[in-house]
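The instructor's notes for this session suggest beginning with a concrete chain rather than abstract definitions. Hand out the sequence below and ask the class to guess, before any prediction is shown, which regions might be ordered.
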Amino acid sequence: MTKTGMPDSSALYDRLQMMRIRGGNIPSSPVIQSESSGGRARPGGLSFSTSGLDVRRPPPTLHIRDSSNIPPAPTNGTSSRNSSNLFDLENFTPELRIDGQSYSVSQVDFENLSYLGEGACGNVQLMKHTPTGVKMAVKRMRRTQDMREQMRIFTDLNIVIKQHQCPHIINSYGAYVTEQDVCICMEPMDTCLDKLQKKMREKKIVGGVPENVLGKITVGVVRGLDYLKRQYSVIHRDVKPSNILIDRHGQVKICDFGIAGNLVDSRVWTRDQGCPAYMSPERIDPPDQDSPSYDIRADVWSLGISLIELANCKYPYNNTAVQFSLMTEIINSPSPTLDPTLGFSDDFVDFVGICLIKDVSLRPKYERLLQHPFIKKYEAVDKSVIADWYTSNFLDQEN
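After discussion, reveal the predicted structure:
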């Protein structure tokens, strides 16, 4: 920080150049590019490397039963709890569990139906398991010896492969491995909220996602994030519309855990993960430069930004053409807010407002959010509010 309290732009730029972050979509922005890209831009995403993955070379052999191939869990030197939370690769068996029955599985058992999208560490395709006829969203993650990429794969596996008691975490049928990929077979959902926004613009729907629909979605997201924190001591680190899924039955689920971080003493000690567009100020410019860390309130900020974007069908910051300018605006400008004159309720305006308190010490954690009147109101609302709105407006386009 400078003497004026403003972030040092050269230091921020240096940190920005060191961040090896996968691109994240900002739906309302036609082009996002990094200043180091020489003007080369990727539509709808931030331009970054793939963290050392050389797709021109054949993938290295990765023996999933050999524990020497399990990368060490990063810690800050004060705890080894992360290592015990890793997915148990040594005892991993490629199989699916469908309706209580186990099936051995390989690539030849699947029929490719369509491409669904791309996540933090792999692409997702809709596929049919031909022995059972069950459709699945199969996330394919390229095998690599790059330690960071391995950690992303294993973190995603470690969370998704478990049998969750929370209805707001995407569930898995199981996983299998090919010569090139690790594949996670997940329950299919109809759409993510990023794609939904694009459909809204195509259909010229005025305004954003209705408040009552967003209210019920918010309940699911906060419940899901709170479950990750309580059950696994995990922070998602990549909360954004593309990682929030809904379906025609009104279900709300969080997905894409490849860059989730383990909490040590309720904090995370690394900050080079996630999408900068939804990143909290304390992650971009940590108050303590010598010992940067953050907690679940970073995800609370990301939720607030996502809600404003979804409510208005427009990303709330202006300087989206260059990543450095965007991150500087997030740090320097006042937090975005919902405009109550557009018909948003006082409870909704207040909820988003407390999510976007820039002083992290004043920003609430999940326990306080779950007691907010906005959450209490929509916990009592049936999920059909999502189902009815989605099916009446979009189902014909999603099929």
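Then share the key points. Residues 17-90 have pLDDT under 50 and may be disordered. The radius of gyration is 21 Å.
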